[in-house]
What we know:
The complex is a heterodimer.
Chain A: H1 8-15, H2 23-61, E1 64-68, E2 71-75, H3 79-98, H4 102-111, H5 114-139
Antiparallel strand pairs in A: 1-2
Chain B: H1 10-18, H2 22-42, H3 47-63, H4 74-92, H5 117-121, H6 126-137, H7 142-149, H8 153-171, H9 175-178
Amino acid sequence: MSADEFDPAIERLFAQAPQFPDSVFFEADVAARLNKASRFRSAALSVAGLAGGVIAVRELLNVNFSLGPNGVSAQAGSGAVDSVGAQGGLAFQSLLERSGLGDAAFGAMGSMGGMQMFWVTAGVLVALLAAGVVKLSQQI
Amino acid sequence: MAQPLRDLHDVELAGLAAGGGRREFGELVRRHGPAVRGLLRRMGAQPALADDVAQDAFLLAFEKCAEFRGEGTFAAWIKRIAARLYLKRISKEARYVAETEAEGPAPAVDSIGRVDLDEALKGLSEAERLCVSLCHGAGLSHPEIAAAMNLPLGTVKSHVKRGLDKLRARLQPGPVALGSASHVG
Lengths: 140, 185
C-alpha cells in the first residue's frame, strides 16, 4: 500500500465489524457443519478400515496354515508371503518355547482346528482395527 | 480449574482448536464471525452467499488451524481465507466482472448527509469495490490481489486508487457527500 493510499480514517472504518442480529444462528450453523464433517470423516475412516480389514482377511484366507509336529508352517500364493509367514511362525514358536509356553500353547492350538485358529486371529485383527479407527476418529 | 474461553487469547484458542477443540473454535467463530461476514458483504457478496462463504472459511480454518502460528492476528488470517474463497467462488460461477466499470447506485445518506462505509462502497464499481475491500479489509497486497483476481498489477492499483478517491468523497460529511444531489436555487 503506497503512502497516499493509507488513510487512517478508512482503515478504521474497515476494521470495524458490523453487528449482525443473527450471529447466534451463524455460530450454530458453523458448529453443525463442523459436527457433520466430523461424522462424515469418522464414517469414511470406518469404511476404509473395514475395507482394509476385508482385504487383509481375504489375503489371510489365501495363506494355508497347517499345524504339524514340527511347528507352524505356512503356504501362500506368493513366495514372499510364504517366506514371511513361515519366518513369523517360527519366531512366534521360539518365543513361546523360550517363555516355557511352547508345549501348552501348541497343545491348545493343536486341539483347535486350523480354520478355527484362523477365524480367532482374524477376529482379533478386526477388533484391533475397529478400536484403532474409533481412537483415530476421536483424535481427529 | 479451566480458564473461561472468553479469557483466552486467539492464539491460545487456535492452538486448542488445532488439537480438535471445537468449543475453542466456536469461541473464535463468535469473536470473528461478524468481521468475516461484514468483509464479504463489503466485497459485494449478497448476504446468503456471504454467510455461506464465511461458513466455508471457518470450516477450512478449523482444518488448517495448526498452520496459524500467530505471526499476524487471527482476524487477518481468517479474513484472507474468506476473501480468497469468495474470489474463487465468483470466478467459478462466472459472475466475476472485474473489468466492469459500471458504478453502483448512489449511496443513501443520513439526515446530515453522512454515509457509512457499507453504503459508500455501494457507490463503487464492482472491480473497485473488490480491490479496495481486498486491500483494506482483507489486508492483501496489490500483487496478491492481482494474482487472485487474474488482473494486471497496474489495473489493480488504479482500481484501488479510484475506489479510495470515491470513498473519501462519499464519506465526507455534509453536502459534498450528496454528490449528484442537485440544489435548485
